[in-house]
Write a structure and sequence with these properties.
It is a single chain. With 219 residues, the protein is an alpha+beta fold. The chain is built from seven helices and four strands. Among the domains are: 56 residues; 82 residues, 3-Layer(aba) Sandwich (Glutaredoxin), CATH 3.40.30.10. The radius of gyration is 30 Å and the shape is elongated. The protein binds FE2/S2 (inorganic) cluster.
Amino acid sequence: MPVCQCDESRPRFPELEAVLSEYSLIRGSLITILQKTQDIYGYLSEEVIYHISERTGITPARIYGVATFYTQFNLQPTGKYLILLCEGTACHVNSAPLIAEAISQHLGIDAGQTTSDGLFSLSVVACLGCCSLAPVMMIKDPFGEETYGNLSKEKALAILDEIALRDNLVAANDNQAADNQTAARDNQAATRDNLVAVNDNQAATQIDQQAASERQASR
Ligand code: FES
């Protein structure tokens, strides 16, 4: 039977240790723990929910209940850019449903889904807290979040197109930089090989010359 090689003394979710140490024993901290967990991992996996349950004593069913009640929580991995489109009252009466429909058609996904290239996820949420800018969407990425207000269908789609374009450019630059690094490393290796070959040739020539001198001297 295979023996488990895992180190039982290591925390299973080391990135979460500081959060759990601070909040696990404080009553009423579940939402804070879930928010910080999602900030770390991007979503709430089944494994992490059971881990939080073990550490807090709150049943998994209760944690699932909270996680599914609030639209801010994701139970599946999200795309690189998470679109939170507000459908609170102020946004709703200012055409948010039409914007949601336009985004869905543009990206080919419904709310709760992710584009096949993993770039965008769409989530429809309750009030984002900036109703004076209605209709509003927030876009979260690995580096932070940005809020866009006074949206129209056209403006929302233009923002998404610009993000996709910028992301492509960054990816292309990263690829170019990686190619350049590889080429520079290859050149260095080739130069080193050439130097070794030149040194070998010089050494061989010296040995030949020495042998020739010795033959000459012995005649
Ligand atoms: S209702 Fe959309 S930000 Fe408040």
